[in-house]
Amino acid sequence: MLQAMRLYARELRDRYGRFYIYNSLFLRHLPGRGGEAWRAQVIPKYCARVGKNLRVHEGVRFRGIHNLSMGDHVQIGVDDFLQCTGGLELGDRVMLGPGVKIWSVNHVFDDPDIPIDEQGYHEEKVVIGASCWLGAEVFVFPGVELPEGCVVSAGSVLTKKKYPPWSLIAGYPARVIGNRRPTDEGGGSP
After folding, report:
1. Rounded to an integer, what is the distance from CA 58 to the centroid of its chain?
2. Which of 93, 92, 178, 95 is nearest to 135 (CA)?
3. What strand order describes the sheet that includes 68-70?
4. Which of 25, 45, 59, 127: CA 20 to 30 A from 36?
């Protein structure tokens, strides 16, 4: 018990530690429009950059919030988890459905003779372009760069590979299943 109290005391001395405690105990649990308004006032104070008209639903968790940049009209869904330690950029009008998880950090596991928890972490920035929509329960791996206008189907798992702008993306692992602008991009559904 004494060890836990010491750890909390240390976290309370840190600006971001205070935010994580405040968010876990109070801020993320506020329901309705009042909660959204409260979060829209508090969360930008801790981010690298936030545009106008941020909307954050209840239940959202953050790590590395100081490395989070968001454009205008961003909507973060119910119970999302944004691990921003390696950097996370959300463009204008990005919409995240409920339960979306975006990770910008992963364990290093290259050496089988060293326990994974002793090998450290690898950070890779995630970029979600303007006007993208990630459906419910999408998981985004570190290093993903999603270009403008993409729609990602619910339950998809985005890995680090090239996705064309305006793509319709689905699957586990995710793959392009169509294009929202087939005549503009010179393609169409495969």
Report:
1. 15
2. 95
3. 49-50, 68-70, 88-90, 126-128, 145-146
4. 127
pLDDT digits (tens, 9 = 90+) for 145-176: 999 999 999 999 999 999 999 999 999 999 99
Please give the C-alpha separations between residue 48 and each of 13, 39, 70, 89, in angstroms, as whole numbers. 20, 16, 8, 10
Residue 99 near residue 118 (C-beta atoms within 8 A)? no
Using a cut of 0.85, tell me whether the model's pTM lies above it: yes
- Which structural domains are found in the chain, ordered by start? 47-185 (2.160.10.10)
Q: What is the largest CA-CA distance in the chain?
A: 65
Over residues 124-133, the pLDDT tens digits come to: 999 999 999 9
The whole-angstrom distance between residue 64's C-alpha and the CA centroid of its chain comes to 11
- Round to whole Å and give the CA distance between 38 and 10: 26
Residue whose tokens read 């619910």: 154
